[in-house]
Specification:
44% strand; Immunoglobulin-like; 2 helices; 8-stranded antiparallel sheet; Jelly Rolls; mainly beta
Length: 596
């Protein structure tokens, strides 16, 4: 009780002392009312992009950022107005939202009348804060609509047939050594999804031939043929020679020189060749050839480190194929160059290119690259959706003669995807594009891809996102994408029925672009003839080299993530991915390699 009393007394004394001191503090001047915050709406975006073109979104979503002179300022409401030009915004001829009470300033949906295709819309916004302060109208921004996907598309799908698409009656021969279970050879293949596949397998200690047919991805086993009389049990995993002849509707097979089967089928009449394994299957192929009527259509030892197929691992014994692999022959399928000349006969108000591909593409106009996208149109499920890109090329046109050019590559459409091999969507790439020119006198003209385009095999003998590029600079004609080039030796592009136009949609995601250049930090020579350019970090990009050497000289560029202790490139972690570029010089002085 005594301790509690003293504590209370001390507390009371402290309160009295503090209260007694309060009158000694002189009263200050009255606090001034805070100044009204200055508001500005800035950084306007449409679909999270600045001044986008080629939008097919029915209700584009708008956004802005608020700058204020005070802290803690919150938006209380906004007003958006949209017009067909910035000059009409004071009396908007498209839409005025009126004042909307909302703190939302991102992804605000446009709620006006239906937008017209290929039309530019100007817009601006005004905001109010919770204290009732209003901003002025923002600096106008804009967006431009596209062609409404397939509904507004005015272009064909064009390309260049593969040499192997014309192969009909031929004999394919190879030496195969099974490492585990089975391995197969594709023939008369129009991509892996439509082909014959003759499988050499081991089942319960017995060698068998299992002919298959695949139609639109669906497999049918035609029969099983025991090879016990030709391949004894003690030679199941030794090399054997398979020879398969397709003539009309009859396919005849020999193993080690002995005829073992005759199969009749009408499913496929022409196409390429390839190799296949599935699951745990594994085999090594060598001495591969395709002949017809005494003529060699293709031949490769597969023991020299060169891989003409879309997958597999080169070894001294041959090309090892294993796991879920569909390796189609790619060595004869140079990616195409396409071109089209046209004229401009007036003053151009606006010009846009709308372009896409089944594969990847790069456009040029009058010798200058169009846009800065890399690997356009990007990877989608092409069975469901194919994105198109829009480019402003108003400044690249010239009065009189002009020329459009296109490089076309396999990309994800016909090239490798992970370990699934090539031709997952199709066997070769296709381009579809339209240039729309609007003249100041109100006329419009369209230059679309069609059968009038010209095509030839280009410098890319192979272009694969997993395995790399084989590029022969001697095959790139000077001036091929400029006006006046003589393309008489080129062929008409094929118009291809690929059933993809109705799947075309405008691109909505940011494109792949070059964002940084990394110079090599060190240069070493761990072994004679081999130089290591170390960039100092892992990166995703492409190589730029300045090369000088005699025509026909080939430079091999191998990509790796880390180095071995001896300074050489460590590539074991890449497994079957070759990640290798082969670049053949054209001669005639220094050349900068800066390719797609």
């Amino acid at each position: 009780m005594m301790r509690r009393t003293r504590r209370r007394a001390a507390t009371s004394a402290l309160l009295v002392l503090l209260l007694g001191l309060t009158p000694l503090v002189a009263p200050g001047p009255a606090t001034a009312a805070p100044a009204a915050a200055t508001l500005t709406a800035t950084d306007l975006t449409t679909e999270r992009a600045t001044e986008p073109i080629g939008l097919d979104v029915a209700q584009p979503r708008l956004g802005w950022r608020i700058d204020a002179s005070a802290r803690g300022v919150l938006q209380e409401s906004y007003q958006v107005r949209v017009a067909t030009s910035a000059e009409r915004l004071n009396a908007p001829d498209v839409w005025d939202s009126g004042r909307v009470r909302s703190r939302q300033s991102v992804l605000v949906p446009y709620a006006g009348p239906q937008l017209r295709p290929r039309t530019r819309y100007a817009w601006q916004v005004q905001v109010w804060d919770t204290a009732g302060n209003a901003s002025g109208w923002s600096t106008p921004a804009s967006w431009e609509t596209g062609v409404r996907g397939g509904a507004g598309w005015q272009a064909d799908w064009i390309g260049m047939p593969s040499v192997t698409e014309a192969w009909t009656d031929y004999t394919v021969q190879a030496t195969v050594r099974l490492e585990r279970d089975a391995a197969g050879i594709y023939l008369r293949a129009r991509g892996a999804a439509n082909a014959y596949m003759w499988q050499f397998s081991i089942t319960n200690g017995t060698a068998k031939l299992r002919p298959h047919v695949r139609v639109n991805g669906a497999w049918t086993v035609l029969k099983e043929v025991s090879l016990g009389g030709v391949v004894p049990a003690d030679r199941l995993t030794t090399p054997h020679t398979l020879r398969i002849t397709a003539a009309g509707n009859t396919i005849t097979t020999w193993v080690d020189g002995t005829q073992v089967d005759v199969t009749t089928s009408t499913a496929h009449q022409a196409g390429s060749v390839g190799l296949r394994t599935n699951g745990l299957e594994s085999g090594v192929f060598s001495n591969f050839s395709v002949t017809s009527g005494g003529q060699t259509l293709f031949a490769a030892p597969l023991t020299d480190g060169v891989n003409p197929f879309g997958a597999g691992t080169p070894t001294a014994a041959g090309l090892r194929v294993g796991g879920d692999t569909e390796a189609m022959l790619t060595a004869l399928d140079a990616n195409p160059l396409l071109r089209r000349g046209f004229r401009v006969d007036g003053t151009v108000a606006r010009a846009r290119i709308y372009a896409t591909a089944l594969g990847v593409y790069q456009l040029s106009l009058n010798g200058q690259r169009v846009g800065d996208h890399e690997l356009a149109p990007g990877w989608t499920d092409y069975h469901k959706r194919v994105q198109y890109q829009t480019y402003d090329v108003t400044g690249q046109l010239q009065p009189g003669d002009n020329a459009l050019g296109a490089l076309l590559g396999d990309g994800w459409y016909a090239g490798s995807i992970a370990w699934f091999g090539t031709d997952n969507y199709g066997s070769r790439p296709h381009l579809s594009a339209q240039l729309v020119i609007d003249y100041t006198d109100g006329r419009s003209a369209t230059v679309g891809t069609d059968g009038s385009w010209r095509v030839t095999g280009g410098p890319f003998l192979q272009s694969d996102l997993i395995h790399g590029e084989t590029y022969d600079a001697r095959r790139l004609p000077a001036g091929w994408d400029r006006p006046g080039f003589n393309d008489a030796g080129w062929k008409p592009a094929t118009v291809d029925d690929v059933d993809a136009t109705d799947k075309i949609v405008a691109q909505v995601d940011p494109p792949v672009r070059v964002t940084q250049e990394l110079p090599a930090r060190t240069l070493t020579q761990p072994t004679p003839g081999t130089w290591i350019f170390d960039l100092g970090q892992n990166m995703v990009g492409k190589v730029r080299l300045k090369l000088n050497g005699p025509a026909g000289t080939t430079v091999r560029i191998r990509h790796a993530e880390v180095l071995n202790p001896n300074g050489t490139a460590y590539t074991a972690n890449l497994r079957s991915a070759r990640a290798t570029d082969q670049y053949t010089l054209r001669g005639g002085g220094a050349l900068r390699n800066d390719r797609q």
